[in-house]
Each structure stands twice: as structure tokens, then as C-alpha cells.
Design goal:
elongated
Length: about 140
């Protein structure tokens, strides 16, 4: 598999996990008074835009993603639900999000560094945009800890 395709798959998996997790979190705190809700709603909009863009690039590259991350998504969703049911404070939700963003950011940064010379420039740009979004979210979320 070439570098562009590997980077596209990582972006796809990252944004798909973000979409799934953010929707789940919003559902879990739907009837709560969390101040962090507006940040989750903004994150959801950004993830939807990133996901739309990555789907377009996947189509352009004629790359079909198999849904192999279903178990990973389910496991993460279950763990997150358990944590939020025990403690649904803004600081706990920020902690969960920061951990998720940090893992995604590390993976994205490594692939960008590895493939910056070989990958398609549009895909590389999207990867950098997703990374920048993740880094900015970590900074923003630290205010809730």
C-alpha cells in the first residue's frame, strides 16, 4: 500500500472515531448541565467536515475502506460510557477527550513525518489540518481540567 493510501486510512479512522465518540458523548450528557456541550457540538461539526473531505479523497484515490475498526469503536464507546456514567463532570469529559485527541495526534504526527515527501499534497494537507485541530482541542480542553 502506498503512503497516500496509508495516510488516508489513518485520517478516515481518526475522524470516524472522533465522530462516533463525540456523538456518543453528546448522547450521554444530553439531559445534563455540562458546560462542555458546546465544545462537543463544535467538535462534531469539524469531524463531520473532515470526514466528508476524507471520503471525497478516498473516492478520488479509488480506495475502499473495509470496516475493520468496528470492534475498536465498540470497545472505545463502551469504555467511554462506563467512565461517563461514573463521573459526568466537565473535567472528566475533558480528560477523556484529551486522552483520545492525544493518541490520535501522536499517530497522525508520526505518519505525517514519515510520508511528508511521498504522500499526495491534498491528503497531507488534510492530515495536517486534522492534527492542528486535535492539538488546538487539547489546549482548549485543558481549561476544563
Amino acid at each position: 500500500m502506498n503512503e497516500t493510501n496509508e495516510l488516508l486510512i489513518l485520517i478516515h479512522d481518526n475522524t470516524k472515531m472522533g465522530l462516533t465518540s463525540t456523538k456518543k458523548l453528546l448522547t450521554l450528557i444530553k439531559n445534563k448541565e455540562n458546560k462542555i456541550k458546546f465544545i462537543l457540538e463544535e467538535q462534531l461539526q469539524r469531524y463531520e467536515a473532515f470526514y466528508k473531505k476524507v471520503k471525497s479523497l478516498l473516492k478520488k484515490e479509488k480506495l475502499n475502506i473495509k470496516h475493520s475498526s468496528l470492534l475498536k469503536d465498540l470497545t472505545a464507546s463502551t469504555a467511554m460510557s462506563h467512565e461517563v456514567k461514573k463521573d459526568n463532570s466537565d473535567s472528566k469529559i475533558a480528560d477523556i477527550l484529551i486522552r483520545g485527541f492525544s493518541m490520535g495526534n501522536i499517530n497522525m504526527e508520526v505518519k505525517i513525518k514519515d510520508y511528508k515527501k511521498e504522500a499526495n499534497k491534498d491528503v497531507l494537507k488534510l492530515a495536517n489540518d486534522v492534527l492542528e485541530f486535535g492539538e488546538n482541542q487539547v489546549k482548549l480542553l485543558k481549561n476544563y481540567l
